Structures are given as C-alpha cells and as structure tokens.
Amino acid sequence: MLAARDVALGDVVAELDRRSGRSGLDEKAARAAVPPIGPAAPDDRDGIAALYAEALPDEDLGALLEDLHGFGSGGVLELVARDTAGRVAGHCGFTLCGLGTRGATAALLGPLAVTPDRQRAGIGRALVQAGLERLGRAGVAHLLVLGDPAYYGRLGFAPATAVAPPYALPGDLADAWQVRTLDPAAPPPEGALAVPAPWRRAVLWQP
C-alpha cells in the first residue's frame, strides 16, 4: 500500500546528517538560539509523552505517539528540541505515506508540540524546517499537514486541494489540509494519501 514504506527514513536521514557533519543537530536552529534539534531517541519517549500532556492536555495523542514510536525509523522521522537541561522542549513527527498513482513520495507532518513555557520562541518553526531539510535530502517530494492555515502558511504550505485525505474532513477543517512541495521536479501532489496504520483512525481526522 505504501510505496515508500520500504525506505528506512530514519537510517537515510542519519546517514545524510553524518555525511554533512550535522551529527543530528540542526545548526541553523542552534545559531538562532533555538534549542538543538535532532532525532528522537528511545529514552525520549517519557519526555515526549510529558510534553504533549502539558502542551496539549485536551488532545488524546498517547496512542498515536506510541504507535509512531513502534512503527520504527523505516517509516517515521521524529525530531526533538532539547533545552539546556536535556528536557524535551519540542517534538515533531514525519510519517512516510503513499500518494496517488504517479510515484511521488510524500510524508505527513504531525503531531507537533512545544512546551508552554517555550512557545512563540521559534521552536515549532525550527522543528518543521529541520524536518523539511532532512526529508528533502532523503528524496521526499511532498509534505502534507492538517493544521492551522495561518501558522503553516507562513512556512510555505498551501491548500492541498488535489490530495484526498484518508478520511473525509469536517467542513471547518477543509482549509487546514495543506501541502508543501519539496521537489518541484516531482509529480504534482494529487490523488489519495495512503497512510500507515498509526494514522488509520478516524478520530485523528474527524475530531
């Protein structure tokens, strides 16, 4: 179902980071006084869970996070920002998906959270930008997101009118379905988005 599922996304990103001398850290973010950003480690799970409980207490994302952790680096890239004490201050997930029938490689952004005391400090933007850079270098052509158009529009996302989400969206979320193209030479973002098991729950799309 997922044409991109066999690509070891985490392994590819780690190798590209190694070759570029990044060592898993986003240098631009560090220069901008944003906490260093790098791939999440297994021992970050408790910190990630605590982050979402604090930042998004009204959203039940525990099952999704556990499923994404268990899905492995072959199909999910998880990035975290750590403060000076080593605490997880921000987290963002990127999941490989299938898109349409023309062979374009796509990913789905989410979930994304920043600890309340560090919000509006550029951490969320830095996490997304770090993901964009890594996904682009790994050959991902398009990144989809279901999120605030005002926020993601500032990050270069546009309405994904030609991409069908896995579940019908409520009318008030129609404008929240967005895409950013990472490879202009790739087939355009169109067709149905085929998501892996962690995202096959209607409640994630029809809150």
TrEMBL record:
Q: What is this protein called?
A: N-acetyltransferase
- Is Ubl conjugation found in the keyword set? no
Classification via SUPFAM superfamilies? Acyl-CoA N-acyltransferases (Nat)
User: InterPro entries of this UniProt entry?
Assistant: Acyl_CoA_acyltransferase, GNAT_dom
N-acetyltransferase domain span: 35-183
Alphabetically sorted, this entry's keywords are: Transferase
Organism (species): Meridianimarinicoccus roseus
Asked if the keyword Transferase belongs to this entry, the reply reads yes
User: Which one of the record's GO molecular function terms can you name?
Assistant: acyltransferase activity, transferring groups other than amino-acyl groups
